[in-house]
Amino acid sequence: MKSELFPEIPVIPFEGPQSRNPCAFKHYDPDELVGGKPMKDHLRFSMAFWHTMNAGGTDPFGAPTAIRPWDGETDPMRIAELKMRGLFELTGKLNIPYFCFHDTDIAPAGATLRESHRNLDHITGLIKQLQQDSPLQLLWGTANLFTHPRYMHGAATSPDTRVYAYAAGQVRKAIEVTKELNGENYVFWGGREGYETLLNTDMKRELDNLARFMHMAVDYAREIGFTGQFLFEPKPKEPTKHQYDTDSATVHAFLQAYDLLPHVKLNIETNHATLAGHTIQHELQYARIHGILGSVDANQGDTLLGWDTDQFPTDLYTTTLMMYEILKNGGLHRGGLNFDAKVRRPSNTIRDVVVSHIVGMDSFARGLKAAHAMLQDRALEGFIDTRYASWDEPLGREIQSGTTTLQSLEQQIIDLPQFLPDSGQQEYLESLINGYL
């Protein structure tokens, strides 16, 4: 039997809603059929390497608190190997089929880009070796273009061409590794692609350069035969005051303006929607109705805090409405539900990490079943159909045909007595959703 890094963590069983075992699923049964499809195919869970294996429990006011098996190790490559083995062990015990990473999450950066590439190649070889005895697959890869000081002014939007070229080298390698590991997606996250002040910013040049950068990435991917899906992740602020990927609608407009729409869909995060002043349902629905919903970073934020807290999803109302939009999208297809989430600083043991994933997976399982039942009953659709019924009547059809004018519409209602539209019944609809929960 192979040695374990986390012998205290068992293989997590499904025990059902009555279980009080914190290390057991209460609602997530991967083989349970929902709408004729197993839960595991609806949900396609993924573990985020950066939070699960790298987060040390730091915050702006405190040092690391996490207790991990590699504490005390000093060789960066040895630590990277242990973390990767730990990821495979935890995903196996949790029955999570996918993982995601940034390049510098899994392999330490070298003194030069060439050395960084060598380190990444070594860890890529280890991943391929570990995959021989594991079903774990790569949901998506990406490059970290925001942590190193060289990226303080951005990467693909940097005013310095050397930084732009360095970022290009990182992305080229990250796409190559994603392909080598049969990754299903590649993500662009513009962590610092924005500005702190317009007083020193040439916005048009930066947007043009960002689009040019993304086109080069798409061209390279096709050149090497990468057939995965490209994803762009919206986020409005933090770390920069304004980021060019503010929300789904802004990214959609950018993709349209620069002819990237055929190649790129969206990876949408719950906490980023909050920072943009939207609900996650809004962001998912906008992407869905425009055909660009690709994947989801599944977490939640704290409404009392104004930053990206990346907490594990526990709000059943939110997970239900997320799955409602995802089911209406026909699923996430090549995408998945990636737990871009971390435990709170005082939750410093690996058991806390495991329990957090269990709670997140159970929350989405409950949301899936509630959303499916709502769609089966047409609980919201029936109400919406009635609310917009006048658009299926003669006047509505005439307007939608494009044959009306302002004058012709005025004549239709010029002698109509004063009236009010019907109630929107928001509170009733909210109570309806509560009933499904």
Report on the architecture of this protein:
It is a single chain. Helix 3 packs parallel to helix 5 (113-131) and helix 6 packs parallel to helix 7. It is built from 16 helices and 12 strands. The chain folds into 2 domains: 33-377, Divalent-metal-dependent TIM barrel enzymes (TIM Barrel, Alpha-Beta Barrel), CATH 3.20.20.150; 381-436, no CATH class. It has 437 residues and is an alpha/beta fold. It is globular, with a radius of gyration of 24 Å. Strands 3-4-5-6-8-10-11-12 form an 8-stranded parallel barrel, surrounded by 4 helices. Strands 1-2 form a two-stranded antiparallel ribbon. A two-stranded antiparallel ribbon has the order 7-9. Mg(2+) 2 binds at residues 269, 272, 308, 310.
